[in-house]
Design goal:
The structure holds two protein chains of two kinds. Helix content of chain A is about 75%, strand content about 0%. By secondary structure, chain A is mainly α. Chain A contains eleven helices and no strands. Chain B contains 21 helices and 20 strands. Chain B is globular and about 75 Å long. The chains are: A mainly alpha, B alpha/beta. Chains A and B meet through helix 7 and helix 8 of A and strand 16 and helix 14 of B.
Chain lengths: ~280, ~550
């Protein structure tokens, strides 16, 4: 059975993929749909959705178009989610691979280093990092990556520990392959399925982290993001509930979609487990 | 013992034209196709077949353990007149355990690792709401005594991991016997055990069967086991019964070609032919090899030491096949791994062509290592699932500096050498059967033009008929390419087929060595005698001395 067929057997995953596709489409189309800056004040503030034609989602406290903010925010959220995940993988995968493959002292040293990061609460560390570095998109991505790589390192290390004793790895050692080749060609491809699944969930967590940072006012002041929108609207929750709810639903749907896709990937990459379910 | 209440006369179990349909997309339509047989009380019926023959499926259908997707499409399975296939779950459950008992292949996974043995046995009574807690415990003790577990009192309080494989299997048998079932289904119960333990368990099953007057359905792939305990035999292949009859008839006078092939594939009275001794200088010489496994122990655990190799000395001549025989824990695998360099011995020297490998390092070591290659046991674990077969074979030469194109061409040639199509190079390992994978493993070992191949249980995961083919391939290649072979196995029958000389290992020591013929015909060490006597299906008349006389 093909990869996609196995993936498609999970209905939820298909729904997730469709939602995610729509979000991506929205993000890509944002500059064409709303060529003006989402920060521009375009109408009277506190317009309810549908109250004035041309502003389907209304306007916020400053009279900015909520729909424009949502579209541009999608771009920011997805970008930050993806890039920070890639950076986290770039840190976590090599560290976990080295620790798991070589074991012994190297493993001890790398794992203590990992635990150092794991013992500090994620969000607190992210806040501190962003606060120190000044809130820019770059610093936010970096902060999210730094707090989210340890689970990757742990996972990859565990996979390496179990796979390095497989007979095919021993056979590769016997024919004289170098450690580098064994790690990259023999073991790494076999650890990828759980890592891919984890990564899809990490994108979701990263979007949430970015939103939380923006909510606290630690977002990049130049980019419109969903978290910022909720944060800015929290004081007017009772007068204009839709200002917090609309971006909130956008975050909910995106994160849900990513989780569903992650689960579908898990099924597709581990066909035996999926069948037993 | 009260006589069980029987509802009907006739055979205890009658399977009538049973067909079990496989889910769509499987390699055949039926797991079991139109199978009929009877099993009377106090009879042992052996169902024999290779993997994929559907031999376990009927038993699963009887116990209601069919995997999802498989269903009975036709036929009946009458147990004491009641059809088990149409019976509702509640009445079926009442039968299971009480009137039909089952023993599984892998005693470690069949027992709950977190429950004491005594509680697990008591649970059988509890499940059927029988006896008081106190009586259950007494009964459990009595059962452990009956299956002859050493120190049954202590075993009651033991966890499964504290027992050896054979002891666990005894516990499984005790559980199956707890409610004195009329029918005992044993699915390959001795396959995971050492030969000597296997012999004891077979003896126990036979003994219990006679004492309780049970019917036993014994599923196995091994005709040796059949000869040991069967009253009647049913040979299955690809879901169909190819031959059925009394054990004597089938063993002495098999009618079907397939049965004959299976019986021939295992030489019952295994006596290796004498082979010409090679008189060349030794290719490999091993001297004073020691290896101790130490677990470092935690705060509350003492350090543990296991002696895997203890002063091992031997030589292996060019062009010779040396067998290393022993049971699990004898250190035979450690020996192989030390020689290829996967483990580092504590002491001693390993000389290849007179050069001490342990004194070498870096490039020089790599150059010499290349000459010793290994064929692994598990054909499913020894090939990387994500690397194409051609690449898996070529990666050795590539790592040693051969260009990719050249190495791939060589890989295709090697595939042809081991009897596979050259196009196999483009496919992934999961597309091949166990035997074919083992051929790929051999091709990979050959890719570096080694002088010595260490085969660690290279055929023990394969069906007997495939086993014979792979052994023949190894033997042919050895002749053709002037190889030497270190053949590690737990199975003396396999060793008899291929080895020139044998080393018998026990607890890290070599207890006996000599030519294969000499060891089979006049074993000196008591342990060797025990191993030989434990070979299932070795006819009782084939005592060593008589075989020697008869084999002249």
């Amino acid at each position: 059975m093909s990869f996609f067929k196995r993936f498609a057997q999970n209905r939820g995953a298909l729904v997730g993929l469709v939602i995610l596709g729509l979000v991506v489409l929205l993000a890509i189309c944002a500059p064409f749909l709303y060529p003006d800056s989402p920060w521009r004040m375009v109408q009277r503030p506190f317009l309810a959705p549908g109250e004035v034609a041309g502003f389907p989602l209304g306007t916020d406290t400053m009279g900015r178009d909520v729909a424009a903010g949502l579209a541009h925010g999608a771009w920011v959220s997805l970008l930050i989610g993806l890039i920070s995940t890639v950076v986290a993988l770039a840190i976590g995968v090599p560290l976990g691979a080295l620790a798991g493959y070589f074991g012994g002292r190297i493993d001890d040293a790398l794992m203590r280093f990992t635990e150092f990061f794991q013992t500090i609460p994620n969000f607190a560390l992210a806040i501190v990092l962003v606060a120190i570095m000044e809130p820019t998109t770059f610093s936010i991505v970096l902060a999210i990556a730094i707090v989210s790589w340890p689970p990757v390192a742990r996972l990859v290390r565990g996979e390496f520990l179990s796979i390095k004793h497989r007979e095919y790895v021993e056979a590769a050692r016997l024919v004289g392959q170098t450690h580098r080749d064994i790690i990259i060609k023999q073991i790494l491809p076999n650890t990828m399925s759980p890592v891919i699944v984890l990564a899809s969930l990490m994108v979701a967590t990263a979007i949430l982290l970015e939103s939380s940072l923006s909510f606290l006012g630690l977002g990049d002041p130049d980019t419109m993001s969903w978290g910022y929108m909720i944060g800015a609207a929290r004081t007017v929750m009772r007068q204009a509930w839709w200002l917090s709810v609309i971006p909130g639903v956008a975050i909910l749907l995106t994160v849900l979609a990513l989780n569903l896709v992650g689960e579908g990937l898990d099924d597709a990459l581990n066909p035996q487990l999926a069948r037993a379910r | 013992m009260s006589e069980p209440l029987r509802h009907s006369d006739g055979p205890l179990l009658r399977v009538e034209r049973l067909s079990l349909a496989l889910p769509e997309g499987a390699d055949r339509l039926y797991a079991v196709d139109n199978v009929s047989y009877d099993l009377s009380a106090s009879e042992i019926l052996c169902i024999v077949g290779e993997s994929g023959s559907g031999k376990s499926m009927t038993a699963n259908a009887i116990m209601g353990l069919l995997p999802t997707g498989v269903h009975a499409s036709n036929g009946r399975a009458l147990f004491d007149g009641q059809d088990l296939l149409t019976m509702n779950e509640i009445s079926h459950r009442a039968l299971r355990g009480r009137r039909i008992g089952m023993i599984f292949q892998e005693p470690m996974t069949a027992l709950n690792p977190l429950m004491r043995v005594g509680e697990q046995i008591a649970e059988v009574f509890e499940a059927h709401g029988l006896l008081t807690a106190r009586a259950r415990k007494e009964k459990a003790l009595a059962l452990l005594e009956e299956v002859r577990l050493p120190n049954p009192q202590a075993a009651l309080r033991a966890y499964p991991f504290e027992l050896s494989g054979g002891q666990r299997q005894r516990v499984m048998i005790a559980m199956a016997l707890a409610l004195e079932p009329e029918l005992l289904i044993a699915d390959e119960p001795t396959t995971a055990l050492d030969v000597t333990t296997q012999a004891q368990i077979l003896h126990l099953v036979k003994d219990l069967q006679q004492r309780h007057g049970m019917a036993v359905m014994f599923i196995t792939h091994d005709f040796g086991v059949v000869a040991e305990i069967a009253d009647r035999v049913c040979v299955m292949r690809e879901g169909k019964i190819v031959e059925m009859g009394s054990a004597r008839e089938v063993l002495d006078n098999p009618q079907h070609d397939y049965t004959r092939a299976l019986i021939e594939a295992i030489p019952g009275d295994a006596v290796p032919p004498s082979r010409s001794e090679t008189q060349e200088k030794p290719l490999l010489s091993v001297k004073g090899l020691d290896k101790v496994y130490r677990s470092s122990g935690g705060w509350f655990q003492p350090k543990r030491e296991v002696v895997a190799l203890d002063a091992i000395d031997f030589t292996l001549d060019k062009g010779e096949t040396l067998g290393v025989v022993g049971e699990s824990g004898s250190g035979k695998s450690t020996l192989g791994r030390c020689i290829v360099g996967l483990n580092t011995p504590d002491n001693g020297e390993i000389r290849l062509n007179g050069i001490d490998l342990r004194a070498l390092a870096g490039r020089e070591l790599r150059e010499h290592r290349r000459r010793i290659q290994m064929v692994f046991q598990d054909p499913y674990a020894s090939l990387n699932p994500r690397i194409r077969v051609g690449m898996a074979i070529a990666q050795g030469p590539i790592a040693n500096g051969v260009t990719k194109a050249e190495a791939m061409q060589q890989a295709r040639d090697l595939l042809a050498t081991v009897g596979l199509d050259a196009s196999a190079a483009e496919r992934y390992p999961h597309e091949f059967s166990g035997g074919q994978r083992q051929r790929i493993g051999i091709a990979r070992a050959l890719a570096l033009n080694p002088e010595l191949i260490v085969a660690d249980e290279a055929v023990s995961a394969l069906d007997v008929s495939i086993q014979a083919q792979v052994l023949k391939l190894l033997d042919d290649l050895k002749q053709e390419l002037d190889l030497s072979l270190l053949f590690i196995t737990h199975d003396l029958r396999v060793a008899a087929q291929i080895c020139d000389r044998l080393i018998v290992m026990q607890k890290g020591k070599i207890v006996e060595h000599g030519s294969a013929r000499q060891i089979f015909l006049s074993p000196q060490h008591p342990y060797t005698c025990e191993l030989l006597a434990a070979i299932p299906g070795r006819a009782p008349h084939a005592a060593p001395a008589e075989v020697a006389a008869g084999a002249v």
